[in-house]
Amino acid sequence: GQQLNQSPQSMFIQEGEDVSMNCTSSSIFNTWLWYKQEPGEGPVLLIALYKAGELTSNGRLTAQFGITRKDSFLNISASIPSDVGIYFCAGRTIQGAQKLVFGQGTRLTINP
Amino acid sequence: EPEVTQTPSHQVTQMGQEVILRCVPISNHLYFYWYRQILGQKVEFLVSFYNNEISEKSEIFDDQFSVERPDGSNFTLKIRSTKLEDSAMYFCASSVSDRTLHFGNGTRLTVT
Question: b or e along A44-59 (b: 16 or more beta carbons within 10 Å of the residue's beta carbon)?
């Protein structure tokens, strides 16, 4: 089935540092979404990408839809304590009409 | 901002019992979903629902599971005879089109 490999699994950084995480797959995706999840809550949409090569920003967050359609990355610049959480990539393949496939998540911890 | 609401936030049930998890999607949304997340793992797709019928379901969504939209606002997930391995966070989601999903805060189901 469609699998998303998300890395790194966890990151421990200092406040103010930039963060980069990515997702790759052997399948082609036509949608990439990046979500953040905090304890006891559902995933919250950060950025949505719909076209290969698309680069989209949301404040300090930037995400790109890879040209091959098989990968995406998320960057966070100048991290702050409230960036702590688990970040998930999610994608929708051309074959799967509505199902979202999620990556395993990147747990971000920030030392003040 | 409109949001997806789920009740209850926590449900404890005995193995073999039936449970119904309830969701009120965002009012103008047309696509409805259930996902689950076993503790510490990634979010997994269960089922999508559009135009009053299931449009897609995963292998997890077997005969023990059913969904219903009994009126114009609620969307429910029923598990007929719960098993220990059904313990998880269950997330409802909705979307206007088949693009970006908005998730509720989840129901934590504990089967004892």
Answer: ebbbbbeebebebeee
